[in-house]
Q: What sequence folds into this?
């Protein structure tokens, strides 16, 4: 009988992103703000058309391996960039016959602008038993989610 040889097809390194519980595939260009959390770069979408992925790893833009795993589950979670700039993370997967596939996530980190708060004074003076109502407005110039809290300091 004849022996049929098939060429090993390389695996596909597909980057997924967990964005606050909403998975997305192929986020090659990610934009975030300094100090914000990139919730997750996922590898589970990667596949090998004619075999099995036996290894995956992430390298940052300095070439440092930041995560490695003996399968296709080496997700990166909770990345925080404090400086603005562009950061590249390379995902490389290897199949059971030695072929490799790679993909790059480009993460652009923009400077974080502080929220603009208006409508409050530096201090208030009231007498015991008096009520005080404070109305304030806050705007987040970056459009990022914002939370706030009131702190009362009694002198």
A:
């Amino acid at each position: 009988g004849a022996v049929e040889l098939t060429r090993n097809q390389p695996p596909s390194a597909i980057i997924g992103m967990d964005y606050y519980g909403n998975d997305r595939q192929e986020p090659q260009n990610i934009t975030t703000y300094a100090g914000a959390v990139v919730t997750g770069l996922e590898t589970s979408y990667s596949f090998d058309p004619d075999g099995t992925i036996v290894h995956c790893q992430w390298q940052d833009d300095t070439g440092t391996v930041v995560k490695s795993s003996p399968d296709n589950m080496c997700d990166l979670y909770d990345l925080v960039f404090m400086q603005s700039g562009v950061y590249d993370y390379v995902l490389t997967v290897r199949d059971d016959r030695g072929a490799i596939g790679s993909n790059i996530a480009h993460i652009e980190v923009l400077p974080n602008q502080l929220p603009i708060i208006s409508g409050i004074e530096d201090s208030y003076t009231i007498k015991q038993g008096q009520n005080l109502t404070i109305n304030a407005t806050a705007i987040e110039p970056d459009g990022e989610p914002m939370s706030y809290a009131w702190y009362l300091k009694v002198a």
Observations:
- The radius of gyration is 24 Å.
- DSSP finds no helices and eleven strands in the chain.
